[in-house]
Design a protein that fits this description.
Blueprint lengths: L5 E5 L4 H12 L3 E6 L3 H15 L3 E5 L5 H15 L4 E4 L14 H29 L2 E6 L3 H4 L5 H21 L4 E8 L27 H13 L7 E4 L6
Parallel strand pairs: 1-2, 1-4, 2-3, 4-5, 5-6, 6-7
Helix pairs in contact: 1-2, 1-7, 3-4, 4-6
The structure holds 1,4-dihydronicotinamide adenine dinucleotide (NAI).
Length: 242
């Protein structure tokens, strides 16, 4: 279904990003994985994509928060793959803490990675999308950006910001044939949520369990092919933000 398309997945070396890369590869897309530091993990994801699906896949180390590093990486991806059709802004971090005690750098790091990182990627790929008159952008936000969460003012602000970014980009680029949607996971079992098994919020999930990275990847697959959907925020949260 995505044969001949190229997808860039940020933070694709593990967790939700790994599941998204593998899912899009299983649909026939070539995959560019952007990762922060774990070279071996990123290469393993690329090997999986290639061996299981016969697509092309390459890993690129890049800090998405760095405007000029993203520019250089996008140029490399373009040189390697020719063009890009799908961008999944999945890279994200948490630096949780109570507002009254939060360090300035913990606020800045989270905003820079989660929100500015997505802007940097969209900014540097938009020229390509506009020229192609085709592009699909999927921003991984969070239910924390819709509901807020005590101890996560930085993370919630970054994820709420992503929703505003998504809707503005969707309106601005729709006339060029480019769609932009957000996907809001709830509690998904990954390294990020390790140690949260006693979190009282888990008891409030109507479907009763944490989600799996593959649950998010299924929804990304839907948004990648839903040609008449743009500016949407799709929850994948077991109903917690209902
Ligand atoms: P994770 O911590 O397992 O993976 C995050 C990925 O982002 C890693 O591959 C890491 O290398 C990459 N990354 C972090 N900073 C980066 C940077 N500056 N430049 C490039 N890559 C960077 O996290 P997980 O759980 O897989 O989360 C993926 C996304 O889903 C994040 O945006 C997260 O906020 C979001 N999310 C996760 C939820 C969960 O319950 N796990 C719930 C809601 C949203």
């Amino acid at each position: 279904m995505l044969k001949g398309k190229t997808a860039v997945v940020t933070g694709g070396s593990r967790g939700i990003g790994e599941a998204i890369a593998c899912k899009l590869a299983s649909m026939g897309a070539n995959i560019a994985v952007i990762y922060a530091g774990n070279h071996d993990a990123a290469e393993n994801v690329c090997s999986r994509c290639k061996e299981e699906n016969g697509v092309q896949a390459r890993a690129y180390q890049c800090n998405v928060a760095d405007f000029s590093a993203v520019k250089d990486t996008v140029a490399k991806i373009k040189a390697d793959f020719g063009t890009v059709h799908i961008l999944v802004n999945n890279a994200g971090i948490t630096r949780d803490g109570m507002l009254a005690m939060m360090k300035e750098e913990d606020y800045d790091d989270v905003l820079d990675t989660n929100l500015k990182g997505a802007f940097n990627m969209i900014r540097h790929l938009s020229g390509l999308f506009i020229r192609n008159r085709e592009g699909c952008i999927i921003n991984i936000t969070s239910v924390a950006g819709m509901m807020g969460n005590a101890g996560q003012c930085n993370y919630s602000a970054s994820k709420a910001g992503l929703i505003g970014l998504t809707k503005s980009v969707a309106k601005e680029l729709a006339p060029k044939g480019i769609r932009c949607n957000a996907l809001a996971p709830g509690f998904i079992a990954t390294d990020m949520t390790e140690g949260q098994t006693e979190n009282p919020l888990l008891k409030m999930i109507p479907l009763g369990t944490m989600g799996k990275p593959e649950d998010v990847a299924e929804a990304v697959a839907y948004l990648a092919s839903a040609k008449y959907v743009t500016g949407e925020v799709l929850r994948v949260d077991g109903g917690i933000a209902m």
